[in-house]
Every structure is written in structure tokens, then in C-alpha cells.
Amino acid sequence: MPAHRKSLQELELSGATKKNPSRYVTRRNAPSTGDLGKPHRSLNKEETRIWHEIAKSSPAGILQARDRLSVELACRLLAKARSGMAKAAEFSILTSLLAKLGLNPVDGQRIDAPPPPREDDELDEWFSERPR
Fold first, then answer.
1. Total domain count for the chain?
2. Half-sphere exposure of 90 (CA within 13 A, CB side)
3. Which residues contact 108 (CB under 8 A, 6 or more apart)?
4. How many C-beta atoms lie closer than 10 Å to residue 51's C-beta?
5. How far apart are CA 116 and CA 74, in angstroms?
């Protein structure tokens, strides 16, 4: 079985993109498809609460419109698991879904999250105005 493909961020951190730049010329991060949005109207109250919990747990900019179906399924399975009605196979599917969405510690590190917006502080302004 081949090795899993590393994200562009992992390759940059390891120095692979500097060692073999031509290998990664065509590599791009997936384009944005818009925000995750509001929960589907078919979700019940508990599943809707879980939707917001998942959205809040994810780093900003990671969950997008393309993830809606996976998040919806994860909400339904997690609600079923929390009620004590989930079967072993459903736990397996839920674990896999949460991993693919980057919602566990190991897989969360593999996701290319956009850097948080940097807030300018007074020192930045002072240093930028100072003559060199």
C-alpha cells in the first residue's frame, strides 16, 4: 500500500519543497468552496447542536460547503452514539468521518489551516514609522 500523500504545508515544513521544488510546482491547496453554512433543516435539535459544536471545534476556514454532507452524517452518528443507540460499525464510521474532517488531535495537525489574522499592535506601528 502506498504512503499517504502529505499536505503541502507538511512538505514545506520538512524542507521537501526546497530540496525538490520542481516536484511540487503543480501542487496547490484545494480551492475554497464557501463557508460550511447553517445546518440542514432535516436535522433535529440535538443534531443541530452537534453541527454547531463541530463547526466551533474546527479551525476557521477548514470546514467548507463541500464538507456539508460529511458534517451532516457526523452529526447524525454522534447524536446516535451519545444516545447509546450506535452500533460498533457506526462508531467506526464516525471515527473515520471525524478524522477526515480533522477533528481529532492527530489528523487536525495534517490539515492546512489558514493562519489566523494577525492583529497589529502599537509596537508594529512604532517600528514601521521609525526611520532606518
1. 1
2. 15
3. 59, 102
4. 24
5. 26
Q: Are 8 and 23 in contact (CB under 8 A)?
A: no
How many Å apart are CA 51 and CA 68, to the nearest integer?
A: 10
Distance from C-alpha of 82 to C-alpha of 86, rounded to nearest angstrom = 8
User: pTM for the full model?
Assistant: 0.65
Residue 69, domain extent:
34-113
Q: Which residues of 84-109 are buried (b: 16+ CB within 10 A; e: fewer)?
A: eebeeeeeeebeebbeebbbeeeebe
Q: Write out pLDDT tens, residues 51-97.
A: 999 999 987 778 889 899 999 999 999 999 999 999 999 999 999 99
DSSP state of 16: H
Q: What SS3 state is found at 68?
A: helix
Residue 78 lies in a domain: yes
